[in-house]
Amino acid sequence: MGLSSIGTATEGMQLCIFDLRRGQHEGQELDKILYFFPPDLPFSTQLSVIGLSEGLITFTRIFSPEAACEVIEAERHSHVFYEAEPDIWMVMIVEKSKEPEAIWRIDALREVLKEIHSLFIMFHGSIRALLDKEPGGGLTRAHLYPFIMDYLRACQKLSPLDECCWDFLVGKKLLLPSFCDCLKERRTVQMLTVGREAAIEVQTLVRLLESSAGNAQCSSLILFQDLLVSTTLSPEDTVNLFTYAVLRLTPLALSSGARSWSYLRKGNTSSHVTAGSTLAPSGSVSEQFYGSQDTSPAGDNRYCVVRPLQHGKWSKGKDGFLITDIWGVDVGRSDVTTPIVWLQHTEERMYLCAYQYKSLTLILLIPLSSILNGEQGVSTVKQQLLENASLKILKVEEKLSKGWGGENAYHVSGYRYLIVDGNRDISRASPPAKVTTLTKESLLALNRLREEVDAEKSRSKWDNPGRDKDLEVSIRAKNNAWAIARIIGGKELYMVLEKANETLLYASDAVEKFSNRYCSGAFSLD
Asked: pLDDT digits over 335-356, tens only?
C-alpha cells in the first residue's frame, strides 16, 4: 500500500499568539491576544485557551526556569509551545488521532511555528517592535492576521491532484505535517551538487552580481530550479530567502500550471485538521478586534499592510527581472516599488532584486542605506547588473542544465532517505515521488523513531550544552521494514529499508554502504 491511499482526519486545531506582558489587569485581558485561529471563536473560548497556556508556561518554569516549555501531552490534545520572542508565545493545540501510533511529530509542528515567525520578521520586523510602535496592538494584529492566513493558503492547489505541504489551508481544513513527512526537514535548504568547473563559474558570477552596486556590501542567492546553488547570506537568512524563493520566485512557482517536484512539496498525503469554522466572518466582533479579516489585496484600510505571501502577485518583466506590486507603486514614475526585506543576521533592511533566466533565479540584496536616491538608484543597479553579468548568467545556466540529472537526480535505488546537516541548515532527501511508494507502517515506524531521536537530542542539549551526541538506532516495523537513524557530529541520516533481509546485520551493512558512497566526509552534503 503506497502513500496515495493514506489520509488521516482529526477534529479541532487552534493556533494562537499572545504577549505575557499585556492584559494582566482585570478588564484588559483581551490585550494579550495578538492572533487566534480560528478567529471567530468566542473571546471567552480564546481567553480560556490562552489562560491554560499561560498556566502551563508558569507551572513548568517552576521546575525548569532556564528551559522554555516545549510540549504538554494531555489525554486528548498535544500543546506545542514556542517562545518566538521574549514573553511572546506561539502555541499550537492539535487533537490526538485515534490511531494507535502518533501521527504528529512534535518537533515538526514546532518548526511550522518557527517558520511563520522567521518569515514574518523578514518582511515586517519583530512583533515586539510593532507593539512598541503602536502599543494598542491594532497594528500588530493587522499584520499578523493576513500574513498567517496567506501563509496557510500559501500554495493554492493548481489541480485536484496537486497538493503540497505549503498548502495548509483547504476550505475549513488545515493540513499539518504528519508521519507522511518524516523524510522531510522543514527550515532547511536543498543544495544542487555541481562540479568543480561549474562551481568556479558560479563564484565568478557571484562577484559580478555583488559588484553591480559599487562599494555597497551586497548579498546574493542563486537557485537552479528549486535548488540552492550559492549564497553569501547567514544560514538563517539563507533559509528564509530560499523558502520564499521556492514558494514565490522560481520558474516553477511563477508558472501557474506547473507542479513542483521540490522537496518542500508532496503528494496528497497530508493529515487533515478540521477548523470547524468559517475563516473570515464579515462584520463580526472578532473582525473589529483583529482588524479587517479580508484577505483580498486591499486588506485592512486602517493600516498600510504589505502582504508578501499573496498568490500570483509576481511576474517576469521584459528585462528578466521579477516584478510585483505587493509593496506598492511609485506614483511619480508609474513603476512598482522594489520589495524590502530585513536580514536577521546583520539587522539591515535590504532591497530585494530578483532576476531570472530560464531555470536560473538570482536574488541580489542591496542595503537601503547604500542607495541614496531610492527607486532610481535601484534601477541603476539593475542596469549595471545586466551589463556586467548577462553573458556569465547565460554560461552558468547552460553548464548547470547540462549537469542536471532531473527530478530523480538524488534518488538512490533501494533506499528512502533523509540527510540533515543541522550546522548548515541543509538537507537532502529521496524525491517525493519515490517516498510515496512506502507503506504506512514503514512511515509510522520512522516517525516514532524520529520522535525518540528528537527527545534524546533535547535531553542532550541540556545535559551537555554545546556538544552533539552521536547515536544510531534501528527498529523493525510491523511489515518487517527497517527504520534507521544515525547521528554523527551533528549530521543526521534517516532511512527506511522495506526490502531488507530479516537480519539487523544486513540493514546495518546497507546503511554503511549508503553512507560511504553518498555521504562522503561524515554526512557532508556537497
From this structure: 678 999 999 999 999 999 999 9
